[in-house]
Amino acid sequence: MSTQALRKKAVAIFRAALAAADPVQAVLRHVQVKGNTLIAGKKRYRLDAFDNIRVIGAGKASAAMALAVERLLGSRIRGGLVNVKYGHLAKLRRVELNECGHPVPDPAGIRGAERIAEIARSSGERDLLIVVISGGGSALLPMPAAPITLEEKQETTKLLLACGANIHEINAVRKHISGIKGGQLARLAYPATVLSLLLSDVIGDDLDVIGSGPTAPDASTFSGARAILEKYGLLDRIPASVRERIERGIAGEIPETPKADDPAFERTVNLVAGSNRLAVDAAARKAKELGLRPLVLSTLIEGETRDVARMHAAIAREVLLSGRPARPPLCLISGGETTVTLRGNGLGGRNQEFVLAAAIDLAGADNVVVLSGGTDGTDGPTDAAGAIADGMTLCRAERLGLDARQFLAANDSYHFFEPLGDLLKTGPTNTNVMDVRLVLVG
Question: What's the rounded Cα separation, in Å, for the pair 162 and 159?
Answer without folding.
Answer: 5
